[in-house]
Design a protein that fits this description.
The protein is mostly helical. Helix content is about 75%, strand content about 0%. It is built from 20 helices and no strands. The radius of gyration is 26 Å and the shape is globular. The two termini are about 50 Å apart. The N terminus is likely disordered.
Length: about 450
């Protein structure tokens, strides 16, 4: 009898057991077949978890949203997909439609309202992403099963972040799954770090009264200008830490599943332009891809930028839930984003551009830092509207701009200016480091080619 020659591939990831080798010898592509089922397993598990947690009526409601938007996606008209999606989103944000749908969900546990609106809202946004990506698919359409696998991935389902369909579909169906060096160590380190952040947030919430002090206007009016400025800043930092901790935990789980999810929001202290101001990077990426960049193009034309920001904040207002406070917040943030473009356009014209060309790079950065410091506090004032109240925001604005002028105003801006310069220097050093790494990689490719 002739010797049997077995095929033993070198790339098989599990080489420690003889039984695994034999299975791979007989079926060299069995691991790839297994990887093809991972996204389906994620979807089935997520769907069952949602069903057990929220009940069959909530599941039926979410599936009805999926069926409606999938049917519209087959038409392959972007305006129709976006219109249908926003109409569906409005049905859970506006009265009396949201109250009617909420009554369909049985149960009375503590987080039911949060899970209901979070699950429905994020589900509709994911369905819109699926529909809009399906419009760009040239050969046929994605299947309804693809939508369900994407929508019911459990770590993203209730609280986000939103990962656009094209990214999720490509990553979840990748059969070449590998780990980078020390990747598991980095994941473990991040998990421990996020656990520590959660404990810190819990201590802040119970003992520092950061959110409750602004509600007591009698107490707040007695505080000094510096205390008011610190309280307003602390409120936004606290909200950013909560968002960073929540998305950090979710992203850690998603990374274990070989996904590259949207990163947590940029640190509030490092924000000095409106274009980078967001607390949910997933929603920000969704809005930029399908609305802001789609309409605004290269963002150099004033009227196109105005239309793009108006449409973006109109959808954001619907997402947050229309009310007076959200209208005011959207208006000021929309104005701030456009004002940045107007100022940039103005200073790109002579004689300002000529004067800046004569200056050195360091002096130009110092002058820009003055405007960035003022911009930082406009970001603080505009965004404490959504966290506290209109009365608190008006009080902070009056004390820092009018009653505290010039001593409090100048001193607060001076401290902010120093912080902005540190951030800009850090960004400059990081940009130089990134350029050096790119140049090194290009040179390595050239040497291999030679």
């Amino acid at each position: 009898m002739d010797d049997v020659v077995l095929y033993i591939p070198q790339s098989y990831p599990f080489r420690s057991h003889r039984s695994c080798d034999l299975c791979q010898d007989i079926h060299p592509d069995s691991s790839k077949d297994w990887y093809r089922w991972i996204s389906l397993i994620f979807g089935v598990y997520g769907g069952l978890a949602v069903l057990v947690t929220m009940g069959w009526t909530f599941m039926a409601l979410v599936l009805s949203h999926c069926i409606i938007l999938y049917s519209v996606a087959l038409v392959k008209r972007k305006w129709l997909c976006l219109g249908a999606g926003l109409t569906t989103l409005a049905s859970i944000k506006l009265e009396p439609y949201n109250s009617f749908q909420e009554t369909l969900v049985t149960g009375s546990f503590d987080l039911q309202d949060i899970l209901f609106y979070g699950g429905c809202g994020f589900s509709i946004m994911r369905c819109m992403s699926f529909a809009l990506e399906n419009c760009d698919k040239k050969d046929g359409s994605y299947t309804f099963c693809d939508l369900l696998k994407y929508n019911f991935y459990l770590p993203f389902f209730f609280f986000g972040p939103i990962m656009t369909f094209d990214r999720y579909h490509a990553q979840a169906n990748n059969t070449q799954l590998t780990r980078k060096d020390r990747e598991m160590w980095n994941i473990t380190t991040k998990a421990v770090l996020h656990l520590g952040v959660i404990l810190v947030v819990d201590v802040f919430f119970h003992y520092l009264y950061i959110l409750t002090i602004p509600n007591d206007m009698k107490l707040v009016t007695k505080l000094s200008d510096w205390c008011l400025a610190g309280l307003a800043y602390s409120n936004l930092v606290y909200d950013w830490v909560k968002a960073a901790a929540m998305f950090g935990v979710i992203n850690t789980v998603a990374t274990l599943d070989h996904l590259d999810p949207p990163q947590p929001p940029k640190c509030l202290t490092m924000l000095y332009v409106f274009s980078e101001t967001h607390f949910d990077r997933g929603i920000n990426d969704w809005l930029c891809k399908y609305v802001y960049d789609y309409i605004g193009g290269d963002h150099n034309k004033i009227f196109k930028e105005l239309l793009a920001t108006f449409c973006t904040f109109a959808i954001t207002t619907l997402w947050l839930g229309p009310c007076q406070l959200v209208y005011i917040w959207s208006f000021f943030n929309c104005f701030g984003l456009n004002f940045e473009l107007w100022v940039a356009k103005l200073f790109s014209l002579p004689p300002f551009s000529t004067i800046e060309g004569i200056m050195g790079e360091a002096m130009s950065r110092r002058i820009r830092g003055v405007f960035n410091a003022a911009n930082f506090w406009t970001i603080i004032l505009y965004n404490i509207l959504s966290l506290n109240s209109l009365e608190f925001a008006k009080l902070v604005g009056r004390r820092l701009i009018f009653k505290g002028f010039p001593l409090s105003t100048v001193s607060v801006l001076l401290v902010t200016y120093c912080g902005v310069q540190l951030v800009k220097e850090r960004e400059r050093q990081q940009a130089l480091q990134d350029e050096a790494e790119v140049a090194k990689a290009v040179n390595g490719v050239k040497e291999k080619a030679e």
